Each structure stands twice: as C-alpha cells, then as structure tokens.
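Throughout our pipeline, every protein is held as a single compact record rather than as scattered files. Such a record has a labelled line for the sequence and another for the backbone structure tokens. This encoding replaces a full spatial description with a residue-level series of whole-number codes. For reference, a complete record is included directly beneath this paragraph.
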Amino acid sequence: MSETRNFVLRDKKGNEHGVFTGKQPRQAALKVANRGKGTKKKPEDIRLRERGTKKVHVFKGWKEMVDAPKNKPDWMPDKINKPFVKKEGIEKLEKV
C-alpha cells in the first residue's frame, strides 16, 4: 500500500504556502482545485512540489457546480462543487 505524500502549493514566483496530502499528486491537486477560483473557461495553474524531492507537478484546475448524487445524505445540498484537474507535466527544480 502506498503511503500518504505531502505536496506544497507554489505560486508563480516560487513562494510556497499550504500543504496538501494525498497518495497521488492528482488527489492533492483536486483538493487545491476545490478551494480555488478557476472555471472551465479560465482554469487556474496549480503547481505542487512533492516534499523531499525537487519535482513540481503542474496541473490546470477548476471547479463546477453539479447536481448532488442521488444517494446523498440529508445534510448535503442539491448542488455541489466538483473539482477537475488536468496534468500538464512535471518540472524539476534546479539546485540553488
């Protein structure tokens, strides 16, 4: 079984803030997309550096309002946000 990995959110300037966890980079990117402001027409860039490595996973992410599933619990609203991500690639950080 794979372990939970930590991914740090990076902005365009290279500043890091916010740690998101997941077994795969896509799982962490979905969490970022659900909190973001991207739309399908204008997705936001998501750059996640895996802790302990020099790999930066690059995604395009957005969220949409969709109907809740039929078997939803009573407390869940009829419309929910659903995150979407598309992997753009992996970048390697250079040594400083």
